[in-house]
Amino acid sequence: MYLLTQHFLPKMRLRANRSAIINLSSATGVYFSHNVGAYSSIKHAVDIYSRTLSLENRDKIDVLSVRPFGVSTGMMKMRK
C-alpha cells in the first residue's frame, strides 16, 4: 500500500487522462464460506480499500474491485 499511495497515486493524479486501478478480490469477501475465514477477511479488506481509494480519488482515478465467483481451485473443493 505504501508504494501505491506514495509513488503511483501522485503520478496517476498528474496525468492529463483518467487512470484506473483494478484490484482482484473474491466473492468470498462478500458471501462468506466456512474454512476460508482468513481468505474471506483479506478479500473483504481489498473491497473496503478499493471503495476508499475510489472515494478519495474519484475526480481522476477509477478504482474497481473484481470479485470472481466459483473459480475451481484446490481451496474451493469441499470435503464430504
Structural account:
It is a single chain. This protein is an alpha+beta fold. 42% of the residues lie in helices and 15% in strands. It has helices at residues 2-14, 37-57; strands at residues 19-24, 61-66. It has a two-stranded parallel sheet. Strand 1 (19-24), helix 2 (37-57) and strand 2 form a beta-alpha-beta unit. The longest helix is centred in the middle third of the chain and has 21 residues, at 37-57. It is elongated. 8% of the residues are buried.
- Indicate the overall shape: elongated
Q: Quickly give the structural class.
A: alpha+beta
Extended strand count: 2
Q: What is the H/E string? A: HEHE
The largest sheet is: 2 strands, parallel
* Spatial strand arrangement across the major sheet: 1-2
Q: How confident overall, as mean pLDDT?
A: 87
How many helices? The count is 2
Unreliable sequence segments: none
Percentage of residues in helical conformation: 40-55%
Ends apart, CA distance between termini:
39 Å
Classify the beta-strand content into a percent band. 15-25%
